[in-house]
Each structure stands twice: as C-alpha cells, then as structure tokens.
Design goal:
This protein is an alpha+beta fold. It has eight helices and 27 strands. Strand 5 and strand 6 form a beta hairpin. Helix 1 packs antiparallel against helix 3, helix 1 packs parallel to helix 4 and helix 6 packs across helix 7. The longest helix has 25 residues. The two termini are 41 Å apart.
C-alpha cells in the first residue's frame, strides 16, 4: 500500500491481497466442451471481435508512459493494446474449451502473442488452430492454485508459521514456468513453509530476494485524498451505488467511518467499508459537492470497463505521488505476508510506486484493473508493485464502476428481452447466463454494463 502520512518524511509500502481468486487465476471447466474444430473457431471469432467490442483507444498520457517505460513507439503502444484485447478474448475461449486440462495463458514478446498451456497432448492442435502457441506442462492451473492455497494455510498456522511467512512473504503461481514461486529473505524459512504445506517440492521454486514488500502508506482515479487529516492516499476508480457517488481505494488507507478530504482540502466524504489485511479493499461515499467521472488523472481517456488482463499484458498506474508509470502484469493470485497478516489474491506487476500512490488506479488500455496495494523499490531505481483487482471490490460492496457514457447505478439495457444477465453484475470466467432464450458462457471476467449485452460482446460471451 502506498499511503503517506501528511507530516511524515517517509512511509511504509504495504501490500494486501484479497481472499478471492483473481479472475485470470482459475478457469472453470465448461459443462459441455466443444469439439476441437468448434473450439478453435470460437477462439478465433472471439479474438477478432475483441478490439471493436471493448475499445482500445488510450489517452496520450498512457501512451507516453508506455513509450517511456516499455520502450515502445506510439504506434507500437496502440498496436500492443489492441493485440492484448484480442489475445484476452482468444485465451478466454480456449480456457472454456480445454476445461480440466487448462494450465493458464500468458503473452509473449512485443507483439503480445498468446501462449496457452495444457496438460493434455490432444489439446495442442486445438490451441495451435486457434492462433496461440501451445505449451504442454505437467500441472493444471487448478492444481497450482491449490498448492498456493496450501502455502497460505501453512503461513497462518500459529506463531511459527507466521514467522516463516514473514521471512518468505511473497508467493504466487508462475504460469509461464508451471510452478509455484516462494520469494524469501531467508531460504530456510521458505523451505519450512513448503514442507509445512505438504507440497511436492518439485512443484515449488524458492527464490532469495533482498527485501520484503512494505506498506506504501502514503473524483478522478489517481488524484490525492486525505484521511482524517493525517495521511494521504490516491483515488482508485470513481463508482456509483444507486444514487450515491464515491470511489474505491485500498483498505489500508482508512477504516469505516474515517473522513476524507480532497486534494483541494475540501470536505469530501467518508469510508463506508474497509478490509485490511486479508483483502485490501475499501470504498468512500462522497458528498453532493463531488461528482464521479470515468477518468483517471488530469486528462486521461475514459475508462470503458473492467476486463482483467492476463500475465504479460502491459499495465499502467497513476498515483498522487509519482503520476503515470507502466510495466507488465507478472502474476495474478499472489499472496504476501506482512506483520498485519497474510493477504492473497493481489496481482504482481513490474510497475514502480512510492508512498502516497496507495489506492491509485491500475489500467490496461481503457480497462480498469485494480487499486495500488504495495510493493518494493521506488520510481528512481524501479520496483515491484501489487494491485488489488477491482472486480472483487465492486462485487463485494455492490458498486458500479463509472465508465464512459454511463449514468449512476446499474440498469437493464434498452429492449432487454429478459434472462439472467444484468448490467452491474460482476461475472467471472466460466459463469453462465441467459439473454432472451439463449444461453451464454463468460470468457473473461468483467462487470457487465449497458452496451455489453452478450449478443453484442463476443469477446466476453460465448453461446452455449
């Protein structure tokens, strides 16, 4: 977390995670798996529709940050954002098609080419035909997620488990290596944690690191706000809840009932709910003087949705201390142990951050990704930063992300023919709905909104 005490010269960088599975972390198997040819066709169709469905326009500030931090030209940055949107739809369709053999996906190279892993040889031709690079591995993503959960349980097993977890504070599933990674300042502590979890040692890679993440304490996303006139954080994303307006941020920034003031020091609102540790999520209801907008920072383009990108995708962060910085998504469903307790479910990135950036916006293209939680390093020398995914925050508190052209609160689209699909609902990959008389299966986790009805969003929904 990046929360900065107002009168303090330095602050602690904290990370929290949620106990919910990240949307890219586990793919549910479809109840009926299509044949190889049908699966490949569905994946290609979803990929070709993604840019038009989700939009790939990016603000000049974001393009500039991608140019600076990833070494891309403006044209390359825009092409990469479009390629990432296509790849997300393609791999979402393949996740449904492969079912129990699914072992995760990631993007490779400057062109963001998708790679898809499976434990079954028979799936390789399906993946290749769909347009992705097939990778045969030993462990499913579900098995790796289960191993990570076992490590988290071992980390909370009494004082000894907590002590070892503090010395081995970061744990995540590395889909590119088909293994679980434990990062530790003390290798012996990591080995005890792995043994205590009862895991196959071959499935775990222990890495020795120099430092552990620390808390980053420090109505546009990225703008500053102050908590009880004593500390500063950054707005994540403006939201609505019925007629109430406000924003989401990190849980470590404030507790329920804490008051907030804006960057201009005008009275702003108060925290309605907050969770930390365990999760790192909160939301603030603002008074009538403040209006939610779909923007991040001063002049950025509008946020259009909340489709979580996959490992390897570019991602940019805006915070009130360091502004815009970019990197790539390294792992979803990461667990970190701090003195406050174990948190799990945050996303690990190569983006830098500093105290005061905590709670601020993470975006990929025009899609909201999460709120800044914590990490290591700084923006002078580089670092690692974790974000709390935004969709679980929206789902947990019944909030609606403010997007371009959207009024306050969820509501049915014009001419909705009925069914279970509803705007404002957070759908995870694998969820099923009906729209009219047709059944659909979700390909990529997102919050539904008017205009993204299943027939209109083949990058998000697959018939069947």
């Amino acid at each position: 977390m990046l929360r900065r005490p107002v009168r303090a010269a330095c602050a602690v960088l904290a990370t929290a995670a949620l106990g919910l599975t990240a949307l890219q972390g586990t793919a549910g198997a479809a109840s009926t798996t299509p044949g190889p040819a049908a699966a490949a066709r569905a994946a290609r169709a979803a990929a070709s529709a993604a840019p038009e469905t989700l939009g790939v326009a990016a603000a000049p500030e974001l393009i500039g940050a991608l140019r600076r931090d990833l070494g891309l030209t403006d044209g390359q940055a825009r092409a990469r954002i479009a390629a990432e949107a296509r790849a997300g739809a393609l791999t979402g369709a393949l996740a449904q098609a492969l079912g129990s053999g699914w072992a995760g996906s990631w993007l490779e190279g400057p062109d963001a080419a998708p790679a898809v892993a499976t434990t079954r040889t028979a799936d390789l031709a399906v993946i290749r035909a769909a347009g992705a690079r097939p990778v045969l591995v030993d462990r499913t993503l579900a098995a790796l997620d289960g191993a990570l959960a076992a490590l988290d349980r071992a980390a909370e097993r009494g004082p000894a488990g907590r002590a070892d977890a503090l010395a081995a504070p970061v744990r995540y599933v590395d889909v590119t290596a088909n293994t679980v990674v434990v990062q530790a300042t003390d290798r012996a502590a990591a080995e005890r944690l792995v043994a205590g979890a009862g895991l196959d040692r071959a499935a775990v890679r222990v890495e020795t690191v120099a430092e552990a993440p620390r808390p980053l304490y420090d109505l546009r996303g990225g703008d500053a706000y102050y908590i009880d006139n004593s500390s500063r954080c950054s707005i994540g994303f403006p939201i609505t809840r019925g007629t109430t307006q406000g924003f989401v941020s990190a849980g470590h920034c404030g507790r329920a009932g804490s008051s907030t003031t804006g960057a201009n020091r005008a009275a702003q609102g108060s925290f309605q709910a907050s969770v930390f540790p365990g999760n790192d999520m909160s939301w603030v209801a603002t008074n009538s003087s403040w209006t939610a907008t779909p923007y991040v920072n001063s002049a950025s383009g509008a946020v259009t949705g909340s489709v979580l990108q996959q490992v390897g995708a570019s991602v940019c962060r805006s915070g009130s201390t360091t502004g815009w910085h970019c990197g790539t998504i390294q792992q979803h469903n990461t667990s970190v142990t701090y003195a406050e307790g174990t948190v799990s479910g945050v996303t690990r990135t190569s983006v830098c951050a500093e105290p005061g950036d905590s709670g601020g916006s993470f975006v990929s293209g025009t899609q909201a990704q999460g709120v800044t939680s914590g990490g290591t390093g700084n923006c002078s020398q580089g670092g690692t930063t974790y974000f709390q995914p935004v969709n679980p925050i929206l789902q947990n508190y019944g909030l609606t992300l403010k997007t371009d052209g959207q009024g306050p609160g969820p509501g049915p689209g014009p001419g909705n023919p009925g069914g279970t699909w509803a705007a404002g609902t957070v759908y995870q990959a694998g969820a099923t709905v009906t729209y009219g008389s047709t059944s659909y299966r979700c390909l990529q986790g997102h919050q539904a909104q008017v205009g993204w009805e299943p027939p209109n969003a083949p990058a998000l929904w697959q018939v069947g």
